[in-house]
Amino acid sequence: MAAPMRIRQPRNFRDRKDVLNELSDAELIKRYRLDRAGIMLVTDLVRERITNQTERSRAVTPEMKVLVTLRYLATGKMQLCSGDDLGPSQQTVSRVITETLFALSRNEILSQYFKFPVTLENCHTKAVDFQQIAGFPGVIGTIDGTHVRITAPKEFEAEYVNRKRYHSINVQVVFDATYRILDIVARWPGSVHDARILRESSLNQVVFGRGMVPDGYHLLGDSGYPCKKWLLTPYLRPQPGPQSDYNRAHKKTRNVVERGIGQLKRRFHVLHGEIRVTPTAKVCQIIKVCAILHNICKDRNIRIPAPEDIDEPAEDIEEDYDNAPLAVQQPPLPPVAPRPREGLLYRDEFVNLHFDNDE
């Protein structure tokens, strides 16, 4: 007896909305964090890399791939990308996000949007902006580390447990006074100390190590960093007078990096909670792409969405882990090497020169 003939069922395609033409710029920013022109700018950055090499009429367009990725980064919820707004299946969403993140995190795009000031003119401009905050001279950037929570990786799991007892990537970031990111390092496990990340970074080994930045210009960092001629830290026990004045101006100016990190995480909520993707290399791509998009938003003067404007379920809002209490109180980590006396002497001279009002 012959086997029954199989009847091929027609494929059912979900309708995909043309959100770029149906939604206003305000609605696009609410859902995707960029206006229409900004979304097209991002699409053009990666168009050649993410255009399907097929003639199928239902192939996902580069614009749709960018929208799906932006929606995921804005909400941190992959399932929202396949909701009633965009249409692709969950399997397609996952593939599209991976493809677009890889294309956006290429070195040529990173170098285009992260430009550390090294010319005298650019350093002067940055320093003027910072000096208007609290009168602190010669600052071109503020530096700090922030932890982005991740699921426990399968390899080297213990190395990713930070001092707050959760798994994370420790991200080093430098902001200028306009809250634009100048430099970002997103590759170190959560257990690695900020001082080591700095020591191994190109900022230490190349930019400042090779004298690319003119003398007299500095970064500001907290007391977890070693004090250097190009990285000024606060006094742990300041004396009344110039040292205390220096610490007050230092704290007010350095708050830029803390507020900048807050802006980055509010703008792209995927960084606010636990990133549930593997491997960790993909998490690092997500962090760097969010930083690129943050700078694009700054270039386009796109404001950070207010809490009431964030288009996602209220229960999806995660707590800010950076401000959570420590699960286990631990003593501060020791610096990886003795603090160079040269940096401390330079700080004393700097304070006497700029904060001694009696002279």
TrEMBL record:
Cofactor requirement: a divalent metal cation
GO cellular component: cytoplasm; nucleus
GO terms, molecular function: hydrolase activity; metal ion binding; nuclease activity
Ribosomal protein as UniProt keyword: no
Subcellular location field: Cytoplasm; Nucleus
InterPro entries in UniProt: HARBI1-like, HARBI1_animal, HARBI1_dom
Keyword Metal-binding: yes
Pfam families per UniProt: DDE_Tnp_4 (PF13359)
Domain of life: Eukaryota
Residue spans crossing the bilayer: none
Keywords of the record: Cytoplasm, Hydrolase, Metal-binding, Nuclease, Nucleus
Residues of the DDE Tnp4 domain: 143-295
Chief localization: cytoplasm
Similarity comment: Belongs to the HARBI1 family.
Biological function: Transposase-derived protein that may have nuclease activity. Does not have transposase activity.
UniProt-recorded name of the protein: Putative nuclease HARBI1
Species this chain originates from: Petrolisthes cinctipes
Upper taxonomic lineage: Eukaryota, Metazoa, Ecdysozoa, Arthropoda, Crustacea
